Amino acid sequence: MKKNSCSGFTLIELIVVLVIVGLLSGLVMPRMFQSMTRIELRKAAGDMVSFLRSARDEAYYKKLFIRVSFNPDTRQVLLFRYQRASEDEETSFAGPEMVWALLKEILLPESVSIERIEKKKDTDSIDVHSLYFYPSGTSDGGVITLMDKKGRVFQISIDRITGKVRIIDDTENR
């Protein structure tokens, strides 16, 4: 008599393997998506630092007055240069007839918001959502806080005297 020796897996074995794979993916997938939002926040902070550094360089090397405006509602960051209305006009941006020309803009990802903008320089400016870089290399100075949907925060510091831009080291966000 011949013995039936088919090799293969039983239905029970396949179900057990599928349950184990399902449990493991249920544990791994949320951590992977959590890492993705952290990566998006870190990338947005890096993009913001690069953008602000280019604003400072534009002001210093081309001897321009530069304004960086933040719109927390649309997550948009705009870079403007001061444009004199005439050559006779003094280099100052005091007065109601200021003319600003748009140079660049960036849009932060939907998962990242501009949480707060703190200026270090006391100005009488009504425009609390703008920072200025001056031809001398200085700036208003301040701290910009970016936050993701999970509440993780990156802070970007702009030095008032040197205009240098850097991410404030925050070890608990890494």
Put the structure in a nutshell:
With 174 residues, the protein is an alpha+beta fold. The protein is built from one helix and eight strands, in the order H-E-E-E-E-E-E-E-E.
Describe this structure in words.
This protein is α+β, with helices and mostly antiparallel strands and 174 residues long. Helices cover 30% and strands 28% of the residues. The chain has a four-stranded antiparallel beta sheet. A four-stranded antiparallel beta sheet has the order 4-6-7-8, with helices on one face.
Describe the secondary structure blueprint for this structure.
Blueprint: H1 11-62, E1 66-71, E2 76-82, E3 100-107, E4 112-119, E5 130-133, E6 142-148, E7 153-158, E8 165-167
Antiparallel strand pairs: 1-2, 1-5, 2-3, 4-6, 6-7, 7-8
Labels describing this entry:
single chain; 174 residues; alpha+beta; 4-stranded antiparallel sheet; rod-shaped
